[in-house]
Amino acid sequence: MRLNKIFTELNETLDKLDKDRERILKLSRTLIRICSKAIKNIHRKEYSQYHQKVLNIQKIHNDMLLLVSKNPGVFLKYLKTPEQEYAEAKAFYAVVSKEPLPLPSDLNINPINYILGLADVIGELRRYVLDNIRNSIVDDLNYILEWMDDIYTHLFSIDFPSGLTQDLRHKTDQARNIIEKTRGDVSISLQMSDLKRCIENSEKKP
Question: Which of 26, 28, 68, 101 is most open to solvent, judged by the fewest CB atoms within 10 Å of its CB?
């Protein structure tokens, strides 16, 4: 019966799609978890461990791309979160290590997913600034703040419908609030550092 054949073919197709989907989701969860650990390595200045994780992330990402390429119309959406996390980890490291930001094409990441990940870097940079303030490290505070401003300015310049940019506008609004808080923290920290230096200099005078 032709109807039986139709549904047999449909079930075979769906079964293959379901198996590939499960593999993609498993890889996605693994990639997101490793990216989170890699970002922690950056905060802790454990850069050799970070680089080891990035090699693993690249391999997992490539495996995901191969699976997605089988049916991009169905699977492309599953790249959004893991690629954001991948972009965030790479961009965050580039900023704090004073290296050029990688291009989306360098990482083989969808540009929209890359920009969404870049928006999240601002939150990590605030955390990095606060850690430095707690450790009385003030040398790079303005440098980090300038990077936060530059990223925000470019994010704000993207003027396309949300159907294309997804939740970028919301992330941009959050970034503005994060930067304003950080600017106040940096200003107070630098003032306190200057005051401490003045007191120490006055105490050294005979």
Answer: 26
Asked if residue 142 belongs to a domain, the reply is yes
Domain containing residue 90: 1-100
Query: The tokens of 110 are what?
Result: 């969808």
**Two structure tokens written together for 138:** 């003030």
Inter-residue contact 78 to 49 (CB < 8 Å): no
Q: Measured between alpha carbons, how far is residue 190 from residues 50, 128, 137 in Å? A: 30, 16, 10
Let me know whether 93 and 3 are in one domain: yes
Q: Residue 185: give its domain's CATH number.
A: 1.20.58.2140
Distance CA 85, CA 44 (A): 18
CA distance 189 to 169: 30
Residue 17: which residues within 8 A CB-CB, separation 6 or more? 71, 74
pLDDT in tens, 127-177: 999 999 988 888 889 999 999 999 999 999 999 998 999 999 999 999 999
> Cα torsion at 135, 137, 143, 146 (round to 10°)?
40
- In three-state secondary structure terms, 190 is helix
